[in-house]
Fold these 4 entries.
Entry 1:
Amino acid sequence: MIHLVWLVPFLPLLGFLINGLGRRYLSKSLTGVIGSGSVLAAFVISLFIFFEVRQPGFMPQVVTLFDFISVGNLHIPFAFQVDQLSALFLLIITGVGSLIHIYSTSYMHEESDEGFARYFAYLNLFVFSMLILVLGANYVMMFIGWEGVGLCSYLLIGFWFKNTSYNKAANKAFIMNRIGDLGFLLGIFLLIQQFGSVTFSDVFAQVPTLGENSGVLFAVAMLLFIGAMGKSAQVPLYTWLPDAMAGPTPVSALIHAATMVTAGIYMIARSNVIYSLAPCIQSIIAIVGLVTALLAATIALKQNDIKKVLAYSTVSQLGYMFVALGVGAYTAAVFHVMTHAFFKALLFLGSGSVIHAMGGEQDIRKMGGLKKWMPITNITFLIGCLAISGIPGLSGFFSKDEILANAFGFNKIIYAGALIGALLTAFYMFRLYYITFTGKFRGTHEQEHHLHESPAAITFPLVILAVLSVIGGYVGMPEVFGVPHFLGEYLSPIFAPSAPFLHAHHLSHELEWGLMGLSSGLVIIVIFFARSKFRQYQDNGVANTGLAKVLENKWYVDELYEAVIVKPLMVLSGFFQDTVERSGIDATVNGVGRGVKWSSRQIRLLQNGQVGFYIFAMVIGMIVLFVISLFL
């Protein structure tokens, strides 16, 4: 099946072409079957590839389709690399992606036939681009997929393009990602200059020859990390992600759970040898990740839009993944990518079910008591909240515990910050759950009259994702439980080259039990505190003041960017437009034209038709020539 790996991205691409070109002729049911079926078929092939890859002694295989770029000694093939990391991401992307496609067949049913087909075409193209990103056997292939998901995010965030604010959100996502993409591109150029190749196997084989703390490796690692900061929404390039909520809810689930935002984590995990030999950059990654996790978690405490809470939750969880990468726990980072894909997709799709039932309402202050009308959505959403909070036995517990344990071994301050972030996560998630699903209904009578459980096409993916959110963590149980860490063993060939350069921190079983007990106990206390505070929530209509107002306004980061970056740039561009462009360049060019016209008008007067004037001009000319010849 490995040699058929090209079918995995090809099938969603085919779905994109059929739905995109036939959008005016296809029915909704046929569009949904083509869009969902193409990704589901890709998932089935990915499953076969995964079982083949996990066989003992499997060696990475590169499937070359054709030569893409060949200039002098530089050869960049259009090739796919199949190994443990890419096979795992194939399952996550196509598996969660197919559930989101199935969900969309019902959620987007009110769209026109053409709009419905256009939506599925964009969604298929998004999955295709992400598959190219994780399958590429070199950094240029990765960059193609990288730019592809950036384009698709723009198209999907601004899907309802008649709304100006949605278009602005799409532009913001596209422009902020370009900042990170420039860093990624410069990193690729530096790799070509230093190693003469961008193929993973060639680069990673030469990296150790540079030695630890090499200036070149420092530059490469930093430039690639800048790319990851933009795509995976880290401080300071994170503000586009909450605004990406402008798109349809299934799009939010696809961007935030299994695809676009995890691209940065995938890139650093793939480049683990480079980062392991640049420990100073790893420390920067850990600090940036921690700051992002805490900043986003505090903002989520006071958001009232159900999707905005989940958006800042995603930014915070991405911060955790970068903390894991920064402390050298690459397996833990990938583990959290996997579990996060399950419970975050579940939470976003659950919020979509709520919004669907509420007739488009997203303000949680106008909800309440929904568990009576929406029992399946309620229980699945609760499972998602428990999983992301790290309740023992659920998937989030195992991946988050592994990150916390590695952070403790690396640096106690980073551990303390990560633990505080975990407690904030539990608080804001259960604030969201209790305000939405418990207490009395606070919406209008019209909304209450129409409250109902969502159709099967929406609840089926919720149930599947809820099951995965429960059992998904058992592939990476800690050593203290006396069972193998299956995910760690599976990914060991990918991260083995970094092992000699990492300073492993082995915790005693007693200490690990203590850390698990501490985090779990504190999380449970925080959940009960949130329950007592929000179970019978009533909106008193009083505006927030002090710190609460600052958090509600997201630390005024957008306003800061507006004042420090946007307005000065607008003033500078206005100066260039009015002074340099119009008064300088345009005036010079137009002045030349006006000068030629004026000169031609004056010279034209010489042709007046009088013979005497012509004789006089001829005599003057002869005198001038005589003077010139006399002096030369």
Entry 2:
Amino acid sequence: MATFLYKLGRLAFRRRHFVALIWVALLTLAGVGAASAPAAGNTSFSIPGTEAQKAFDLLEQRFPGMSADGATARVVFKAPKGEKMTDAVNKATVEKTVKELRSGSEVASVADPYTGHAVSKNGTVAYASVKYEVSGMELEDSSKDALKDAAQDARDAGLTVEIGGDALTATPETGSSEIIGIAVAAVVLVITFGSLLAAGFPLLTAIIGVGIGVSAITALASALDLGSTTSTLASMIGLAVGIDYALFIVSRYRAELAEGREREDAAGRAVGTAGSAVVFAGLTVVIALVGLSVVNIPMLTKMGIAAAGTVAIAVLIALTMIPALLGYAGRRIKPAGQKSKLLGGGRTPKKPGRPNMGTRWASFVVRRPVAVLLLGVLGLGAAAIPAASLELGLPDDGSQPTSTTQRRAYDLLSEGFGPGFNGPLLIVVDAKDSADPKAAFTKVGDEIKGLKDVVTVTPATPNKAGDTATITVVPDSKPSSTTTEDLVHAIRDKGADIARETDSQVLVTGSTAMNIDVSQKLNDALLPYLALVVGLAFLLLIVVFRSILVPLKAALGFLLSVMAALGAVVAVFQWGWLSGLMNVEETGPVMSMMPIFMVGVVFGLAMDYEVFLVTRMREAYVHGEKPSQAVVTGFRHGARVVTAAAVIMIAVFSGFIGSSESMVKMIGFGLAIAVFFDAFIVRMAIVPAVLALLGKRAWWLPKWLDRALPNVDVEGEGLRAHADREEEKELVRA
């Protein structure tokens, strides 16, 4: 592979006009496609195989026009101090608001508080329920504006009015976060390369790659039912790896120049060596992202595949456009160790020949491997302790900042009707095969009334055919509590008994039950996903490093960093440690998608650092250095670049911590701390310590397996043979 990529790099360097034209054409084509594509409706959300989804599907079939998965809004009214909602003036204001709400084009129904028993016992709080024909993600902006305008009119009349539900759900804006990440990346790249031009190449190629990927997603969004979150994930991951991959190739190019090679040959060797590592690092990220399909949540699968496609584009751009740009730059890109004149180039170093920081650190670790290994493992182990108390759930309006209308509506409803009112359970009774459907409906309601933590059970509401009914159950506890989860399981257990007695089926759904089912599905998929991703990447790394122990060490180190990161997430977002510093207003369960999402993204990035760092060690070992010296050589060439890449990633992810959305904040913090643990503790401390202790055994591979594996030549041994053959040809011609 190294020889093929070497030739590709030289070709791109020579034919730079053609290569640049291809990528500009692809970017233009993707942009035109995105601009001319039909506006995509937001992606439909379904969780195949869950009871909550089965109930939604049944409602669509038996209650046509009900819009079971349609958006809902609760317009909550509170009377001024000393007044009640039943007072004539306040009642007239609410009725006027209800009439205004009913005029919306996408509104399916609006329940009047005074006819629907939606006034609190003390008379101070009331709410109007609004049901829409489409889901919250598909709701038009005009409908959202009409909802807000109606609430504002009631506020102007003197009432306190807030809006809850999913009708006002909006995709978090991440543009400013990405700009912050790019700005920090630019600073780090300038410091790393000592050149504005060299620093600009990784940024330029990463932005082009993300532009092509996101534009392609936008162009295909309508046809493939892709949502806005798909492009958000693709841009975040694509930007991260795009900068990383280009950074490593440009860095290797400058190192090759420092060894006295011609620029075209240096570009070819950079792509042949660092480019080989880029290919396999990219493959690990693609495996991790495509592996999200194991969860069997269509939206998550599409997000993973789209992000994987953007990563593949980043790999191709790094292998072709970077050498082309290096060809354009010519002598303006300085060899490693030299800075541009603008940044102080040409000055005599104060201490020429002094080992760099990576060399000094690796030499220390090689001398004290046991102490460094124990300190690193014990430190990560201590950070992972809170993960034993991990509780999973999905965020609701109760986890929103107090500045949002959704959170204030949640608090008003809790005040007037109890905390469980914010997460009612919808019971669907399918009595199509029952001899007495009405008796089955009554029995279900009576049985649920006898359960703990139940405040209210509404009478059954049958469909026109009389074979299916819905029952609403209001729990005593808030939606995200374990008590409410226990109630859902208790109703389902009771439903199984009722089914045997009445020949009917009892299904529990609603947003609260759906959240519980999603959490359970993600939790059940975590171990299979981990086994698939780690297993495939383990096999891939065996091929790359031609070793058993090095890939095993890489996988175990990754698990350590992920567990430590999960522990940190639990400590901050569940226990409340440093919550003021992180601006976490409400602690509670960790988002159920967090563990599997962290495993996928962090595994890909962790293997990037592993491949780039250890490949250089493998290269030195193959070329004759002793194992301990190979570790030091690998750090001399790779530590600075890996450190820069990690700092860039941490900056990109940390930008999301400032988001007002608790879910985005949690993802940003979790990914940033995971990259920190993995890059600076696992890859920079534990990895060299383990390799120093193992010595030659680190690179052991059974002979039968060595013969069976393909020789991908990541370390570039084939380039040396290729160079020897070229020299022989030159001698013959001479």
Entry 3:
Amino acid sequence: MGVLSIALMAAALTQDAGAASAAGADQAVTSYDAGFFAAARPGDAKAMIDRIPGFAFDGGGSVRGLSGAAGNVLIDGRRPSSKSDSLSDVLARIPADQVVRIDVIRGGAPGIDMQRKPVVANVIRDPRGGVSGSVTLSDQLTLGDARNETEIAADLAARLGAHVFEAAASYERGDSHDRRRTHRVRTAGDGRLLIDSQIDSDKPGEEVVGSAAYETALPVGDVRLNIRGYREISDVTERDRFDVPAGAGLLREAYRGAGGEFGGRYVAPLGDGVELEAMALRSWRTNETRATSTNGPRTVGYRRFDESGESVGRAVLRFHGWDALSLETGLEAAFNWLEGDSALMVGGVLAPAPGSQARVEERRGEGFATGVWQPSPVLALEAGLRFEASVLDPGHGEAQGLEFAKPSAALTWTPSAQRLIRVRIEREVGQLNFNDFLASVNMYTGVVTAGAGLLAPTQTLRAEIAFEQQFAGRGALGAILRQEQVEDVIGLAPVAGPNGLFDARSNVGSGLRQILEVNSTVPLDAGGVPGGLLKAGLKAVRSEVVDAATGELRSYSNQSGLEWNAAFTQDLPAWNATWGVNLSGYTDKIAYRFDGTEVSGAEPWASAFVDYSPRADVTLRLEVNNLTARSAWSERDVHAGLRHVADLVYAERRDEESYRNVRLSVRKAFN
């Protein structure tokens, strides 16, 4: 975090630790009312969430089912009823002036659905409602070649008595691709120069998204219905100019995707502190990629098409009629499927890979029970058990039944409203990615990945200890130390195909991950920067798994060992403005395949922004991204067979340059 950050933190700790506000004597719940955020003039609930000391936003996952898909923010005590509408977008459509307060619950509190998260934020809206909305127009200009991307977005919400209507739509078109030029050099195993070329690329695209929701009170309980749809297009053109050997190449790739979702939620009180919540949704997606690459007389064509869907239902009974204890139990059932095919043509001849056609289905059921016991305002114990049973049919006539018990327990001690210590242990079962069962081709590198055969989901036994200290009202220091023992790690392993060996997703054995995360939020008023705030984060990871090709221990594929980021913001109330700078550190990682490795890295990233509000209902935002015009690189080696025994065929290095870009947006709110 740096010497300056630590010094300023020490100075802030000597001040009166005036935390935002504690909710009564319950030190597991800290409340932040609208006044806490006033100096920053946030336009929406997401901007308010980003200002909460020590809170790290989690938008949830895109996994199948509902249990593992939830983020760590509730709205009026409920999780959003849509999976495909991101939690970040949902929060961005809630105007800040309709937020009464945000409660941060650490470790659990009776009557709160923690969604298996150790910390959640609950956005409490003004129940009086009314009509509100906003229109945002943005344009991003890539400096150097004048490419631009334009977006218009609008949202509307109306609460009329017992009826609530919501709608949102956005349209985006242009080319925001900031890669300027790629220099590629390929050398043979004996050192001969095989390729020296310059690659220029364009990536224009288009996306349209629309969603709507309706909520109303019933004689018993309330119901919410929602629907969402999207369509997206992108067209990539890469022009490859060869110096060695002399000539030119051209790659064209077109992607078309579309999908939708509809579903609903019903919540009803059953009396005596018992509540029923039922959710159901159905979603569908289609994706198609077509590509052609021409280098001299050699032409390669590729097509991949897949469609998939999910139907899921969940019912939960909550018992929170006791002051110190709350319980919930329920069932979830899901049906997921994917069907697709892919084909690679080299010189007009089909080059088949295992898994070029696939039809995958999964039927899954889960029962669960969770309890939160809060014997005192400073102590909370959460314990639960989930049991999952599923049948997975990868389409090869080898359906497999799987069963997993998933216990969890967490103890949270909050000796003061500003301090927290948490110990947690749980067993988690990951979600399979159905796209792994269908063969794919990376046309930029020529790498073919075969479709998977039988796969078992990854099982993780996770233990962690966390510490958090808040100070000076807006400051926080948090650290998490976590260890994960992993079974059935999913990685790449060689499989035999009609044209030799291919990599395919497979279970490669057991693994270990040890993670240290440190995050700080430091108010800079004591350092002479009124309204200044410095956020910094660091994540260090040590991992090991047995390599499927060599049998030796190595780190996880594509796992960075160290990541860091920092963000400075300063509120300028006299100017109705906020400005800031964001930084992220150098990155490097290694990807492992049976016939080689790819090492990639990128220089630090920097951006800056200014928000200005000439009126309470108008916000102008100017961003300058990629200030350092950072470069990135990759080094890839390819062997004639297993990389630890076969001769090197070639080594390739790519150095990428990129442009800066400027983004200007105007948001007009109304209510």
Entry 4:
Amino acid sequence: MTGTVLGAPAERREGRQKVSGAARYAAEYTLPGRAYAWPVPAAVARGRVTAVDTSAALALPGVLAVLTPGDAPRLAEPEDATLAVLQNPDVPHRGWCVALAVADTPEAARAAARAVGVRYRTTPHDTELTLDHPDGYEPEEANGGYPGRVRQGDPEGAFAGANVRVEALYRVPPLHNHPMEPHASTAHWDGDRLTVWTSTQGGTVVRSVLAQLFELPEDSVTVVSEHVGGGFGSKGTPRPDVVLAVMAARRTGRPVTLALPRRHLPTAVGHRAPTIQRLRLGASPDGRLTALLHEVTTHTSRVKEFVEQAAVPSRIMYATPHLLSSHRVVPLDVPSPSWMRAPGEAPGMYALESAMDELADALGMDPVELRLRNEPDREPGSGKPFSSRHLAECLREGARRFGWADRDPRPGNRREGPLLIGTGVAAATYPTMAVPATATAHALPDGTFAVRINATDIGTGARTVLAQIAADVLDVPLDRVRTDIGHSDLPPAWVAGGSMGSASWGWAVHEACAELASRLAAHTGPLPVEGIEVRADTSGKADADSPYARHAFGAHFAETAVDTVTGEVRVRRLLGIFAAGRILNARTARSQFTGAMTMGLGMALTEHSTVDGAFGDFTEADLAAYHVPAHADVPDVEADWLDEDDPHLNPMGSKGIGEIGIVGTAAAIGNAVHHATGIRFRELPLTPDRILTALLSEG
């Protein structure tokens, strides 16, 4: 039976619960006496609260309390300053929580929040990101611990002396995480014991943070995150909702649920920071890169530093003797940016792959061939050998399936009435990572098995995949394995993020089941009543340094139709071919790939946000103004993968797949629009106003 379970297209174990409504999310735990909380967001861009009038709010029926900076429970100083809510009267940006209303019903809590009167003393604010901002600086590190700058050779000199040069600025606006389930938490105190049900990508971390903030032993805190309705990075660390819910429950002595209104999400839970990216590529006439310079300017808040690592992909992708990859960050009076699907890689590869397309155009070379010609034999930024790198195979296979050989390379040459038709290509990469985790595997006398680990399923199918790993190692049918996840009393595990959930949790499950299988093989007679349990901890293994550069790769192909009358862009076809190690579940993997590719389509065509300079607020604060793709926007999306065997990863041979699908999609679409129109657009999204204005100016 070994080898028949892992990789099979098994259905999600919790699917029926979700479609029937039986799955309970964080705001759906109906505890006796439950109350509801509603935040009051700051109405100024920067300043200080001078007074809070709660009298009108407290006079409303059903209102239990209003917490303010002057009387809210005190917290220990958090490592993440965005969690220091209601601890002082300072307002670092619009939308910062300045009060919290608690009432018997959500409606009463909302009415009370609106009735709270807040007075401010304002100070001048600055929300505009510019390349020459005087407060900009070069950070020592970008997110993920990457050096802020990597420099090799003489990139400026090599670029100046290159036979063929491309220099361009690319702009990606602020982008927002909008999971179906907003950030929500239900908190309950039982004496000094705290239980929270929260929408998070990692309950182990939430437990640790709450214990620190409220000065509790960790074993006095229980965090439940059994079902989570999406996160895309915004639930990767604790957010203010869980802290505020716990504070309100402590104040009122009742269980309290706080579900952030969707309009609050852009200012309360993070966003993808905007980037201005300067790309300079120098090449010889045969298309080989002689210089690659990728300089990123982005913003952060004044609350804490967060540096979108958009220049990092340039250290991975292409062979060049002269390389500069650097970041510059500007602190502004804006909400704190944070993790969003494929942070760094999504905006960084948009710029790099767009510049590569421009270079191919300048050289008169096929864009696929240009990428193949610049394949490195080692990772350029580190010099490490790749554990596996099958980008070339992805490009070739994608080109074959897409019919790339039949493409007329001339831009603006294919018409269907008022429509201009074009095709584009872009490469994709995402790092392969793992962190330590602990799991138990338990053999029961009835012939079934239980695997326990505090993993989180945010819609990826983690429950199912972990059961498949266990069944494969134990050599038993999948229906004999139960998976327990989403509870902090289970063995600890890291967050579902960085496309390393299955790799990290699966490693621990694999080890526990391998040891259990060995114990069972040596056991004679019936199992004891309590069964046999084995515990595995991958500390020292999953986090060990590797001599290899470990990445997943892919190639995206897109066909677009540009309407010359309306400026509308329609994507007709998307194809993604990926090399992502061993695929653990064909059904959930394809879902992850195509979902991320759809998100990349939104990044290319519809999704964007702007900061109003006068008010310091995001103007696209809800799904009426922040446009994510609807069903009618999504074309024929096809995702497939190569059978890749990489022995340098983890016992399963798997790479993360949740994020690589978004990487490169926007560039492929943008390159297709250039091929359709002959006009190069360097700012996302490609909305009809931008397209039509450019078409009319060209015409």
